[in-house]
Design a protein that fits this description.
This protein is α/β, with parallel strands linked by helices. Helices cover about 35% and strands about 25% of the residues. It is built from 2 helices and 6 strands. GO terms for molecular function: cytokine activity; dopachrome isomerase activity; phenylpyruvate tautomerase activity.
């Protein structure tokens, strides 16, 4: 189950949050090749962030997945998510960071067990 955690310092209203959740779910699903029903997106908003000695709008994200990620996929996903966030929240792509985690099945819990 891919889990995508987004942390931003930009206040997000409910409509924009819903759009980001939908767009991010579609992007993760399509790019890593897993069904949308497997994807979880968490949007943490209005979290203070300082980067490069400024507090301009920024985002930090983490994608955790059991396989299906690597250099090419990560680059495509980074580009696509940066585009979504620039469109929806006016966050410049130079202020967007994503860390990718490829985890083993036994390190991902679900439904009272592991995958």
């Amino acid at each position: 189950m891919p889990t995508f955690n987004l942390f931003t310092d930009v206040p997000v209203d409910g409509v924009v949050a819903s759009d980001i959740l939908k767009d991010a779910t579609k992007a993760v699903s399509k790019i890593i090749g897993k069904p949308e029903s497997y994807v979880m997106i968490l949007l943490n908003r209005t979290l203070p962030i300082a980067s490069a000695c400024t507090e301009e709008p920024a985002v930090y994200a983490e994608l955790i997945s059991i396989g299906s990620i690597g250099p090419g996929v990560n680059e495509k996903l980074s580009s696509t998510i940066a585009e979504v966030l620039e469109t929806k929240l006016s966050i410049d792509s130079s202020r967007s960071y994503i860390k990718f985690y490829d985890v083993e099945r036994s390190f991902f819990g679900f439904n009272g067990s592991t995958f």
